[in-house]
């Protein structure tokens, strides 16, 4: 029973209310995600000329790691904002590392707190969620940008690109979806109908990707608006080999493009593991696809009307190939 | 950021309040724990003569799997109680499997609901938590037992035994505890002091166990009282080889001893994986122990005064061997 706490999908929709971020465990996972943390570190350490003497705002500072990167790179002052009680730990860490005078940590919501300064030169933030946008802090970063970022200021990172591809995933689909057809001899298909609507956040073996990758959403953090994060966009993917399609997967790449030399990292299936993994959307039917054949469709992404922390994703696709045609509208919900 | 939901230790202390059990994910994990579920299934299917015509109470019925096992074994009627909204799914599953007339599911707290019957012949429940007692439902089972179990009735399972042993675990201790000494060049030792107080629920390789196993707490579900679950007991473990000790581990075995032929399963490091894994308690110092030398101590276990869902565990141990002596009192908290 106590396994409750270990169930991500069951917990994320409400974690907001009881401040799971107050526990170091989640920060341990993020700190130990070296693709993530070292990309941020490099973008800051390798651009000391950009941070030297600057006022920096760290949105969602957590344990203060990015704030300390910035302070160590010569920032004049760093303001770190976090609503979680982890900020008490962060204050201790910041002072243990001799940055008490350089880094000011403020607990509260970006929308509510008042910084001691009118403007900041640089905003740094690790705001990304699963599927980039699920429970992300991007809205908060935009609030900080519009309220505090000086004209011509910079945001680290400043680019995000979302991708979709198709995968052969028969075995895992059997384990996660078809499992419910027969549970110790009982019919659990009512759960199956829930399971298929829920995108699965998991690591996908690059070898199971059978298509090219279609970028379907580019986000420029310097200019994007909250409204831009509700979108319906087309996609087209082409089979790279003869295979079956059991699911679509989505992932994102992150760019620090204003650096002296741009720094990127990917959360894609081919890239090194990150705690964001990939997001899998199982199709109701298996597609039999030949090399070169195309799957076309649209991805519709919007915060849920009733619970804006949930994400409604509709993947509408059609396929017409040598071995048959499929046309489906699939409703998914990340909650 | 959205990784929040995946942090067990950070979430468990509050999951109660937002009904994480309503999501099928946690039940999927428990159902797929075959050591767990097949042990229950066997204890019921292989004892049809005990269930035939009996009234059965399933405490914390979840998706209703144990209730259906009992109904299929000829129970006259099964009452399943669960406070979680998963019970709505369970009702659908029970009816999809044709047990609507045999199984009655009631949503609520055992302490508050009123069964349509005065007594039941058998109580079945999967109540065990990490370290057996962390966020376990045993208290609820005892309430059900005292209120509803007929004189001479049975409880499945009816026995639980807790064990302690010692492990060589240098590498993982470096990864989980000493990691905080240097996080990307920063001093995070303030987190280290939190981390070492927190028992780690994880899978321990049997090969790292360097001692014998000492049973320190036997629980007879038919007779145990709530008070018995707050205890201070001695233990003594003997090194099975020359090795170092970095941590104590605890686990438990479960017994269905009133079956025609007793059925047991273990959550120990030598046994097949279960979702309970083992619980690791890191020691402040590394012990250098020779084969045959003994570590003696006491384990003190009590619900936390302020939050009874948290578990305070004090391991007091002393060791005197050829390569030195250690005496420590270690406070741990599962929350």
From TrEMBL, chains A, B:
Stored Pfam families: Methyltransf_25, PRMT_C
BP-aspect Gene Ontology terms: methylation
Q: What is its EC number?
A: 2.1.1.319
| Catalytic reaction(s) noted | L-arginyl-[protein] + S-adenosyl-L-methionine = N(omega)-methyl-L-arginyl-[protein] + S-adenosyl-L-homocysteine + H(+)
Keyword Lipid biosynthesis assigned to the entry: answer is: no
Which Gene Ontology cellular component terms are annotated? nucleus
Q: Where is the Methyltransferase domain?
A: 56-137
- Keyword Transferase assigned to the entry: answer is yes
Domain Protein arginine N-methyltransferase as annotated: residue spans: 158-321
User: What name goes with this protein?
Assistant: type I protein arginine methyltransferase
Organism, as annotated: Absidia glauca
**What would be the name of the gene that encodes this protein?**
ABSGL_12181.1 scaffold 12718
């Amino acid at each position: 029973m106590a396994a409750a706490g270990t169930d991500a999908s069951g917990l994320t929709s409400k974690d907001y209310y009881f401040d799971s971020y107050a526990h170091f465990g989640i920060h341990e996972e993020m700190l130990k995600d070296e693709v993530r943390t070292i990309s941020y570190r490099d973008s800051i350490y390798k651009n000391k000329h950009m941070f030297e003497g600057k006022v920096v705002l760290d949105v969602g500072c957590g344990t203060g790691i990015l704030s300390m990167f910035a302070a160590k790179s010569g920032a004049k002052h760093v303001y770190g904002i976090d609503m979680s009680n982890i900020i008490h730990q962060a204050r201790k860490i910041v002072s243990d590392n001799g940055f008490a005078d350089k880094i000011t940590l403020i607990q509260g919501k970006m929308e509510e707190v008042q910084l001691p300064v009118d403007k900041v030169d640089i905003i740094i933030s690790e705001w990304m969620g699963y599927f980039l946008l699920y429970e992300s802090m991007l809205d908060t970063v935009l609030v900080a940008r519009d309220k505090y970022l000086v004209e011509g200021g910079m945001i680290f990172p400043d680019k995000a690109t979302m991708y979709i591809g198709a995968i052969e995933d028969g075995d895992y689909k059997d384990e996660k979806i078809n499992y419910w057809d027969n549970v110790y001899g009982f019919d659990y298909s009512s759960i199956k109908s829930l399971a298929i609507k829920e995108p699965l956040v998991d690591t996908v073996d690059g070898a199971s990707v059978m298509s090219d990758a279609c970028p379907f959403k580019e986000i420029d953090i310097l200019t994007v608006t909250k409204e831009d994060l509700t979108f319906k966009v087309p996609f087209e993917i082409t089979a790279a080999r003869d295979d079956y399609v059991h699911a679509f997967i989505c992932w994102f790449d992150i760019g620090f493009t204003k650096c002296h030399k741009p720094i990127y990292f990917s959360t894609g299936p081919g890239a090194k593991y990150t705690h964001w993994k990939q997001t899998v959307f199982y199709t109701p039917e298996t597609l039999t696809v030949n090399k070169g054949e195309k799957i076309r469709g649209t991805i519709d992404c919007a915060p849920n009307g009733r619970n804006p922390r949930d994400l409604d994703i509709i993947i509408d696709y059609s396929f017409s190939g040598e071995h048959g045609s499929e046309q489906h509208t699939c409703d998914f919900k990340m909650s």
